[in-house]
Amino acid sequence: MQSPSKISGAPAYTASPAVCRLQGWADLPEGLLQSIIPLLGSFLELFAFVGTCRSWRAAFSSHPSKSTFCTLLPPLLIRPHISVHDPHLPSRSDDGHELRTCQVLDLANLKSTLRCQIPEETFEKLCFAGSSYGQLICGGSQNCLVVDVFTGAKVLPPQLPFGDDTYFYSGMLTAPLASHNSHLLVCAASNQGSCDTSLLDWPVGSDSWSELRLEDSRIEQIVEFNGQPWIVVCGDMLLMVDHYITLSFGGAPVNYKAFRLDMSTVPAVWVEVKKLENHSLFIGSDVRSPSFSCVSPGRWGGRSNCLYYGYYFQPWILHGLGDEADAVWDPDNDPELVFKRNWYIRLQPFWVYPSMLYDGQ
């Protein structure tokens, strides 16, 4: 692509001094750049914009509505078990750790060739605990690791107040890492067989954890609102998604139903949502992987009132919610699929939004 100062065939005109000072794409006015950002229609376009130069990246970082992409675009599907070769990416991180280059699928642009790099130690030595704000949360022994899925930046909290047999149940961030009030919450036990679990709280940047003992209980999934059944924030609703296996032949073998929390009554009650109208949901196979929702999926070629379920062998399965289950079901789907979210020690495919969308929150 030519720089603006080298475009040939342009009509002659008298330029103002401000225009004459423009030397290339990096000198485009910030207001013009910010007017382009809402027009970007896929993560490939977002990454290309941010990667153009420092001034374009700064324009994106300061855009006040960049977090809306978390509802306008579908989340990216990370497939950590699919290792791909990319000669343009390093094989080791800056601190010398080996990296695995993993496949990334963008439903808004399936022809794109996105990649991410995850430290190999998260597969060999650590257990998956969760992900939030574009960060992968893993743990092993007394150590916990928070790593950015796309930039590879790592944060190492202090050691947990347990021994080498620490078992991690779940984990999440309460806010983006750069936020002044960000906390890392981890539910863990001294060992896998222990009935006594604790909710551990680490204020990011501090040198210690605080502990709340949960006695004979545990936290499977932590969500933010402003397991099984599953919890997902959808617009201004908090949804609980449940499922049951059907015995019908030729139709969908599983049926999913959504219930919203109606807080207009005391006590609050769960009310079935017959149809999600202009929304779609995204769920992974591990109970600790976060669930997401997207508005106007037709904008990127998706389907409303549907659930995109990330799987291991088949990238995803499309399920119709409620009465649309049979109409949406594809009979060519893998008949050996398991429709129950489980606990996995190793990292499974999961949905994620890049951390750059949360910068400045």
What does this protein look like?
This is F-box domain-containing protein. InterPro entries: Gal_Oxase/kelch_b-propeller. The protein has 361 residues and is mainly beta. A 4-stranded antiparallel β-sheet has the order 3-2-1-20. Strands 4-5-6-7 form a 4-stranded antiparallel β-sheet, with no helix packed on it. A 4-stranded antiparallel β-sheet has the order 8-9-10-11, with no helix packed on it. A hairpin with a 6-residue loop joins strand 10 and strand 11. The protein is globular. The two termini are 34 Å apart. The N terminus is likely disordered.
Task: Describe the SSE topology.
Elements lengths: L16 H4 L9 H7 L6 H8 L3 H8 L7 H4 L3 E8 L15 E7 L8 E6 L1 H4 L2 E6 L2 E6 L2 E6 L5 E2 L11 E7 L9 E7 L7 E7 L6 E6 L14 E5 L2 E9 L8 E9 L6 E5 L5 E5 L8 E4 L10 E5 L5 E5 L4 H4 L21 E3 L9
Helix pairs in contact: 2-4
Biggest sheet, in brief?
4 strands, antiparallel
Q: Mean of the pLDDT scores?
A: 81
Rg (CA only): 23 Å
Strand content: 25-35%
Cα-to-Cα separation, first versus last residue:
34 Å
- Helix and strand composition category: mainly beta
What order do the strands of the largest sheet run in, or round the barrel if closed?
3-2-1-20
Unreliable stretches: 1-22, 224-228
How does the overall form come out from the CA principal axes?
globular
Protein name: F-box domain-containing protein
Organism: Urochloa decumbens
InterPro entries: Gal_Oxase/kelch_b-propeller
Short description:
The protein is 11% helix and 33% strand. The chain has 7 helices and 20 strands.
